[in-house]
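Supplementary notes for students who missed Thursday's class. We covered one full example, reproduced here. Read the sequence, then the structure, then the short commentary at the end.
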Amino acid sequence: MIEAAVIGVGGIGAAAGRIMAQKGGFRVVGLVDRFDLAADAAGLNVDQVLERKKSSGSLSEASPAGRPPDDPVASLLRAAPGVEALLLSVPSIPHDLVARQVLHLIELGFKGAVVDVLDQSGALAQVLPLEEKIRAAGMTYVTGCGCTPGLLTAAASLCAHSFIEVEEVRIHFGVGIAGYLERDEASLREVLAGWRGMGVKRAEALTKDEIRTILEEENGLLDVSGLSHGDDVLIERSGVAPRDRVEVGGRIDTTKDLKPTTTTVTVTGLTFDGRRSSHELRLGNETSMFANTAGPAVGYLARAVELNRRKVTGLFGSTDLIPCFIH
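Structure (token representation):
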């Protein structure tokens, strides 16, 4: 049994907690938000805790008006000392937020398995330099474990083995989330950072009213392209192709829970016998962004725990745990 906790209980983090509660092999002992936590070494009723958060704004049974813990993560580790797996679902903007969380875990002496679901190349660039510190701390850390980067990045890296040279990796996603701003504000801001060249600082500074105005003007539909989603960094890191051959974009509908387009990853390249071809993976339109992001992250967390129990420590990308290229 893996004793696990989720740090960051927005839309994706909440989905990850529910997935772990439903899958065999996990006991969810903690759910942590920025200023709040629910922890029980015997295991939490995840649905009950999330319903309490939805109705009262608080993960804990204490009144939301009560004094929150100064350090929810430290409080988690004290309340559930057997926890060996943490899923970080904290925003990728500002870009140093995930890295700061990793450094805090090192300071607290955590030596278990950790995965993140960051989706910004800038955030990934802050995490990768921590590799030696992570190894020295005895931690097993896997980065970029959501959908993009994550599921689609790993799929692209696996498909690339059919080719001697990869000419292009194209990831095009469709997301449909009615009430996106209310259900996962952090993820929506990350999308807006890549919308029409807005940039991270501007997206981070937007007020909710400004975001609502943008969505109203665009009829709830956002087309994004040229995203720096971390896939480029991980694909280059794994030796598949230079990052300038990776393109990420998509279409988001914030008016209904129906994908406006099918999510695909296409890998084009040359084979050893001189043929040019393309592999394409299509995700089912019925699966949500939450399922396609949180589900792979939970799977990567289980793999990280397995490695950690075998004393394999350090930092890995989601593309590192599949067949590799010599580079």
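Commentary. The chain has a mean pLDDT of 92. The first helix runs from residue 11 to 22. If anything here is unclear, bring it to office hours.
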